[in-house]
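Predict structure. Input: Alpha-L-glutamate ligase-related protein ATP-grasp domain-containing protein, 586 residues.
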Amino acid sequence: MLKLLHLALELAYTTLVYYAAFLCYYVGQQPIGSCSILAGDTKAEVHLYSLAKQLLLWDTPHYRAATFADDLRANLKNVAMPGTGVPLSVFCYSRATALLFVLLVNPVACLAAACYLRLARLSPSSPGSSSSRPVGLADTYRQLLLAPQHWFAIWRHNCVLMGCHALATGSSSYSLEDKGAFLLQGQRLGLPVSPFYQAATVFVKHKSVEGGMGINVFKNFAAGGDWIIQPALANSAALAALLPRDAPLSTLRVVTASIAWLQEQAAQQAAAHSSSPLRQRQVQFSTDDSSQQQQSRPGSGASGSSSRGDGPPQLQVPGGTYRPGPATPPLPVSAGVMRHLNVDGRGVSSAKQHGMADPALPPSFGVWGQRHQQQQQAPCSQQPAAAVGQAVLGQQQEVGASLPADVSGNASAASSMQRPQQQAPAVEQACVEVVTAVWRAGLAGKCTDHSSICFGVDVATGALSPGVTANHWYRLGLAGAGRVDAAAARVWQSHPDTGKQVAGCVLPGMADVLDAAVAAHMAACPNLPLVGWDVALTPEGVFILEVNLSCNLFNGAFDSASYYSLLWHYFDQLGSALGAGRKKAD
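Output follows.
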């Protein structure tokens, strides 16, 4: 009896924390990190702050829809909480229905999911994986409600981040969400985008239907039409060996992150700080006593090194000092996304600067940590974007020449798939990192890899991890009501259609895939925080098919601490930027 009472109190307390934090960010509109009841839990702060932000920006413009609400309705019409069959877009009918979901439906659904996961002894964060140690119902409920780690929560975090960033910056790079705009821009920058025909109009005629009824006319997007007309690409021999013969093109999703915008903010803050009247007065009345100068700097100790006990940590980046607000989570000194955040103006790791050991690279970030060890020793350098792409991609510019021009071998069509190489504005290098990579193994008889099993890829070695799927989130109506698909609790060591072992196999060519994604991020959209790239590994080489800005990680493994710290710092700066914008408008 006492155990049940204790469990009820724990569940009730977690629910109260959820309400208090949400109201702090939604009603109080406080900056991230200001809710003391979360006790500095970075994951919970990111989740609840972004949840409130999504509702606060309900009627504001979105980069790919009229409003944030319209974007939610469009993207959630085929997604349902497992076991309900109800599209989440139903709760996006109005702000009131969205609030109903947040305040009532979500806590109930999280409690039901916690009970299911507890009974099935499954992890609340890793699909299909059993818990390495028993996880209590209260702990599972707390994670699902306050800091969920499943693919949908990560996707939602990314969507809110990119929507806020687009609103605050108005960056033209968000136009690359349009598949045609990306292909044209990638072609101009010399990136290995998938080849496409540029003929203004294409006639497709049935071989036997008469009377003009078997004719379809398509106007090319490159000539103002709506259709992207491309030759079909094939899977590389290594990928094809793991797939059924009639599998579709099975692509890799590579997600990259950039801190270039944070660097710009740091430079602006440094310039504003140096030109402020208070700063000029401090300089005017400063003495030559170095110890007094050190004491006069906020957050500095006598030795000049910042410690977390002296105030918010200060982050040295090329061009200025990034000063997060109070209650800032610790900056990880690790590889991956945050590695370059720990580089000061002299190119020295802050860990080494303060005498701390640089930890071993986590496996999921091994390639870029090892490959850019030397880059880490120098500040970001400047090179033209096209030069960056060509330097990183090597011979990829010649790939298009080996592809068939068209099915009839018409020489005139060959010239329509050229890749002009033009110079573009300079961008900073060493500011982009790989977050995760996933191979979507297509299923037999399908046209695309939207129906697939997702196998994680270790970017250090190219080794594939066991596959999972999120198909149980897409069961709508009666087919999804009252039951959870068995796939929710399953992992695949082999391809379900062939039985061929996939987990543990090594994909050759992964270095080229990662190079292409990083080069594209640096060249095409260096100031965007997170970008998902759909990349094809073919017999002719690597091709980037499209860019996804509000990107899905497809259950790929990633450095959780680095990812959430990155989002925390972006939300911190974006909150200030959006607040300044509102003041100007008023």
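Residues 128-132, 281-429 have pLDDT under 50 and may be disordered.
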